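Fold sample X.
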Amino acid sequence: MTPIRPATRADIPACARLVHDWERATGYIHDTPDLETLTGYILEAFPAREIHVCGDPVSGYLSIDPAEAKLGALYLAEPGKGTGTRLMDRAKDGRDQLWLTVYVPNIRAIGFYKREGFTTTAELPPDRAGAPAMLRMEWQR
């Protein structure tokens, strides 16, 4: 079992690759930024986020905005191997609540979040860029 560790700036391109590859594989996100742009977004957010990774090379990535208790990212190279649960345990550690948004077509993630104790609190409409509707989900200890 690969350990989970705080991300470093050197990990950010690998995190961006996980996001990029997932978005391109969905079939419902049509305006995926290029890797350089995604890397820039994550680097810009890096100082204000708690970012954890696992694997070498990075195979899992978690980002939390501690000011809002928002889980902003949970991406895995290979879902279904327990890494998501381990990263979620890290996200919950020391917190009483978290919230996130997830695309409605992402049935696998929605099921995972429900198993992790999240409940749906709102449905957000599709955006103008063509991305599908999202659910807001919340967890409380």
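Fold sample Y, listed below.
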Amino acid sequence: MIFRIERHSPLPAAEAWRRVTDWERHAALVPFTTAVVTGERSFTARTGLGRAIVDDPMEIVRWEPPDAGRPGRCRLEKRGRTVLGWAEIEVWPRQDGGSRVVWREDLRVRPLPGAFDRPTAWAGRLLFGRALDGLLARAHQ
């Protein structure tokens, strides 16, 4: 099930882009998660405790930073066996010098049946919404 998160920030689009595509910082804001960069255009989000760990390998298939009033766009394809789907991040410049960040994600977990799609989307909105809030917070450098 696809979910959408939108945030408005006083940060300029280039700075908002830098923050929301900082994969290691992003993972630090999601409970029990770390990010392991595995290549120039790939990384794995590793979530869990003890032996209960799930890897979410992702490949960046679109990378267009904001430039000259044009929005930035990034698309991640999930390449794992357990976590399936994709994520798209857009960072739009606003006329007041700030930015608008839109996060869309199709998040599915194998082997959960379709009946878990709504709770999974709800949890994704909650977790990634909090992560975006942390990434876009003024105090973050």
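Sample Y note: The chain has three helices and seven strands.
Also: The chain has one domain: 2-136.
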